[in-house]
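Posted in: Protein Modeling Q&A

I'm a second-year student putting together a small comparison for a lab meeting, and my supervisor asked me to include a predicted structure for TraB/GumN family protein. I've never done this before, so apologies if this is the wrong subforum. The sequence is pasted below exactly as I got it from our records. If anyone can share the structure token output, I'd also love a short note on what stands out.
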Amino acid sequence: MIKPEILLVGTFHMSMNPEMVNDQQQEIQEIIVSLKEFKPTKIAVEKSFLLEEELDRKFKAFKNKTLTPTYDEVEQVAFRLAHELELPTVYPIDEIVDMSSPTLNEVFEWAKEHQPALFKEIMEVQKGLKSMENNETIKTILHYVNDPNYSAELQRIYMKLARVGDRQHQVGVQWLKQWHHRDLAIAANISRIAGKGDRILVLIGGDHLHLLQQFLTDSGDFNVRSAQPYLPQ
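Accepted answer (user: helix_wrangler)
Welcome! Here is the predicted structure, written out as tokens:
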């Protein structure tokens, strides 16, 4: 059996930096040209199945040149890539999960108030993450987001968050249950669209990379590839 190939491409939410998107259209095109080297047969994106009809409608309008892409990585990258590869659709694989019981901010506030030493540890790792970040261009952002060392440091923060709380109040664990639920569901949704010989490019927020890599690799059903060789220098 030929295992499907999966390329996990971590990205950032472009709506947070519209000026960069406007100014770096040439960089976005370079990224698309580079990602085409993977030769994907399907492209999956961080959108819920509840938006599937809207996604199809927008992609059709994009192909007909009646849609101006918004500041959204799906429209800026996935639509362009799928269109250039003459793919019929893009696949929504996100899961809607209630992340409010507790919120991440509440976890940090608990640690700050009740576990100051742990809170300091978390802040130190977060400071190290910031030192790896380079937000000068879209290309440099994608390079550090997809760096395994960056993902490893981000995972260290999550594992420290698991210690927030006490035996009666598993505050950090409760938040992580929500986060793992979402990533496990995303991995399952990717698996559901995979067919024999498929090459699936997954465009996803960079903070999901570690768990998706783990879940998809642990299944033994896929060859999971690193995005770094497919990013422009």
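A couple of things worth pointing out for your meeting: The two ends are 34 Å apart (CA to CA). Residues 171-193 form the longest helix (23 residues).
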